[in-house]
């Protein structure tokens, strides 16, 4: 598959789909160590039919973005946190972890090599980056692989809200995304495979996605589809759910810090009971794809609960979105250590 010529790409009208770029990164682990890794043009893999990633789900991945600033420079948003989360995922699935240094080198090399695919600042678009680790090689029994691949691919993606920031609605599902004490806290493919059916069921009913309740009691909100959930109490506190089956979100962690530092808000990680939604004035979902998606309403047992509005974004949610995306695109000063410039000093060694 040839990459899309830059001249034919309309960065202002991109969707969230795959466009082949020129370069991607690949490294192999065998005999107890990772090789040096390479940048390559081919974006396909040839692996053994008995690879553990295919049969036993031994794989993990990350999602992150590179942003173009007004001055034309490119920056990454908290990539060290993605690196540490991938390490936790690898450790949970008995895969050799990637050092933070190697992760940053590989991601930076891919972004620099594909710099022409990073959309301009005024487009609202970005370069989506997908690091991944796969168990490969000849395997048959249920056990860890003897070889692994670490790769990084990227593609330009458009702004999530093309018509401007607007609320979306969710419906509560009876199905679970992850089991108690399972793999809900790590970013592995099995969690997302389990989410495909309830997501499609929600879409067929006219909702953006589904709300997952805690898998133990089904009384508390866990996640909002493939994103984290947050809410603003009527007393002005920003809260997120507390659960052992939730994936720790870099976006969620960041908006909690922004709320404290920039807005002077109190924040808390706590139980959010599905039958007490009246306690909250605003709600939203947060993650890499959309940054923040305002939630207009949640349907539960046939009844729609409306937060701030079904058509207008709540004032706190709007301000959090502006601050977060402003930091990501370099328009708002970032807390120390959040921004990683992509320049000559960050080349692949």
Give a quick rundown of the structure.
With 349 residues, this protein is an alpha+beta fold. The protein folds into 2 domains: 6-159, Aminotransferase class 4, branched-chain amino acid transferase, N-terminal domain (D-amino Acid Aminotransferase, Chain A, domain 1, 2-Layer Sandwich); 168-328, D-amino Acid Aminotransferase, Chain A, domain 2.
Any overview of this molecule?
A hairpin with a 2-residue loop joins strand 1 and strand 2. The longest helix has 14 residues, at 79-92. This protein has seven helices and 18 strands. The chain has helices spanning 52-55, 79-92, 100-113, 189-193, 196-204, 250-263, 315-328, and strands at 24-30, 33-34, 38-40, 59-61, 64-68, 74-77, 126-136, 147-157, 168-172, 209-213, 221-224, 227-233, 238-241, 267-270, 280-287, 291-300, 303-306, 339-342. It starts with 23 loop residues before the first strand and ends in a 7-residue tail after the last strand. Residues 344-349 have low confidence and may be disordered. With 349 residues, it is an alpha+beta fold. Helix 6 (250-263) packs across helix 7 (315-328).
């Amino acid at each position: 598959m040839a990459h899309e010529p830059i001249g034919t790409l309309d960065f202002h009208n991109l969707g969230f789909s795959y466009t082949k770029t020129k370069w991607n990164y690949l490294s192999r682990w065998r005999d107890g160590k990772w090789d040096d890794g390479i940048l390559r043009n081919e974006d396909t893999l040839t692996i053994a039919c008995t690879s553990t990633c295919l049969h036993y789900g031994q794989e993990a991945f990350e999602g992150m973005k590179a942003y173009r600033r007004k001055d034309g420079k490119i920056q990454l948003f908290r990539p060290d946190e993605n690196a540490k989360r991938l390490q936790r995922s690898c450790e949970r699935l008995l895969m050799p972890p990637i050092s933070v240094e190697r992760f940053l080198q590989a991601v930076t090399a891919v972004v620099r090599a594909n710099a022409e695919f990073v959309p301009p600042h005024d487009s609202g678009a970005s370069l989506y980056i997908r690091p991944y680790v796969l168990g490969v090689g000849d395997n048959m029994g249920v056990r860890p692989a003897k070889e692994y691949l670490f790769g990084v691919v990227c593609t330009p993606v458009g702004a999530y809200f093309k018509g401007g920031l607007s609320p979306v609605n969710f419906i509560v599902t009876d199905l679970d995304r992850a089991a108690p004490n399972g793999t809900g806290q790590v970013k592995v493919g099995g969690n997302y495979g389990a989410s495909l059916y309830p997501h499609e069921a929600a879409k067929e009913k006219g909702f953006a996605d589904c709300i997952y309740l805690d898998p133990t009691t089904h009384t508390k909100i866990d996640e909002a589809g493939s994103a984290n959930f947050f809410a603003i109490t009527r007393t002005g506190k920003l809260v997120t759910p507390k659960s052992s089956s939730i994936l720790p979100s870099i976006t969620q962690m960041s908006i909690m810090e922004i709320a404290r530092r920039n807005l002077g808000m109190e924040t808390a990680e706590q139980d959010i009971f599905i039958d007490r939604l009246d306690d909250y004035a605003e709600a939203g979902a947060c993650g890499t794809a959309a940054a923040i998606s305002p939630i207009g309403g949640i349907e539960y047992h046939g009844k729609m609960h409306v937060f701030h509005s079904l058509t207008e974004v709540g004032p706190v949610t709007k301000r959090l979105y502006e601050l977060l995306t402003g930091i990501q695109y370099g328009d708002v000063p970032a807390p120390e250590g959040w921004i990683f410039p992509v320049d000559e000093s960050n080349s692949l060694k």
